[in-house]
Amino acid sequence: MLSLRRINVRLKRERIYDGQFSLYDVAVDLAANLESIRQRIRAACERAGRDAASVTLLGVTKTHPAETVNDAVRLGLTHFGENKVQEAKAKISNCSGKARWHFIGHLQSNKVRDAVELFEMIESVDSLGLAREISKRAEQAGRTLPILLEINVAGEASKFGYKPEQMLAELTELNALPRIEIHGLMAVPPWTPNAENSRPHFKRLSELKTQAEAILGAPLPQLSMGMSGDFEVAIEEGATIVRVGTALFGERRYAAKPVES
């Protein structure tokens, strides 16, 4: 309780740059944000007739420092997501050992070895070739790695992810790889200011999970879907992992160009 009070009283000052690279400060009350999100998760679960414990809150820490992760751990958050292997490699060693890490960005084959060492789950497997490389590197590391298959549910040309029909066609071969375990599916729907617009995409991912379970003859426990703007709708449609960054930690912190005088 002492650590919670200490963090709640001290608003974190985040240094943010706008599009013109002008500097301004934003106060981020991490404790208040976390409690608000937890309350919203509980409310969404109640609407859906679900146990709130069935939903994992994954704090997305892209561009946020290890200090922020450690503050979140002291407040009871345990699961975190990173989009870039190189950033995670520099950050994770400075974070609490209580933090559990998921990789949620596009993974290049030449980064797989590091990803296998750093993360307890890779949520963004989008091809058979990538899955084979993960299995090979996991074999070399002497471990078996849980993965999620990323699905491009809206067929967006600008996004990575399996086409649904391709994932279903390759699922048996994916499942036969010796050093990965398929735990479920992940998706990033098109951005929209109206969360309800994401609902059909979440429904589609849930339906694909059911189809995949029928092919495998086994349950897939995880559906990773929903972010800061739409996680409540995702929970109503069955999400078990919600990936929340901005609503929890504030705006992302990017390195800025010098401001000319």
Keywords for this structure?
disordered N terminus, two-stranded antiparallel sheet, 10 helices, TIM Barrel, 8-stranded parallel beta sheet, alpha/beta
Brief summary of the model shown:
With 261 residues, the chain is α/β, with parallel strands linked by helices.
Question: How would you explain this protein's 3D organization?
Answer:
With 261 residues, this protein is of the alpha/beta class. It has a single domain (2-249), classed as TIM Barrel (Alpha-Beta Barrel), CATH 3.20.20. 40% of the residues lie in helices and 20% in strands. The protein is built from ten helices and ten strands. The protein has helices spanning 2-9, 30-48, 66-74, 85-92, 112-118, 128-141, 164-175, 199-216, 231-236, 246-249, and strands at residues 12-17, 23-28, 56-60, 79-82, 100-103, 121-125, 145-151, 180-187, 222-224, 241-244. The protein has an eight-stranded parallel beta sheet with strand order 9-8-7-6-5-4-3-10. The chain has a two-stranded antiparallel sheet with strand order 1-2. A hairpin with a 5-residue loop joins strand 1 and strand 2. Helix 5 (112-118) packs across helix 6 and helix 7 runs parallel beside helix 8. The model is unreliable at 1-10, 14-26 and 257-261 (pLDDT under 50).
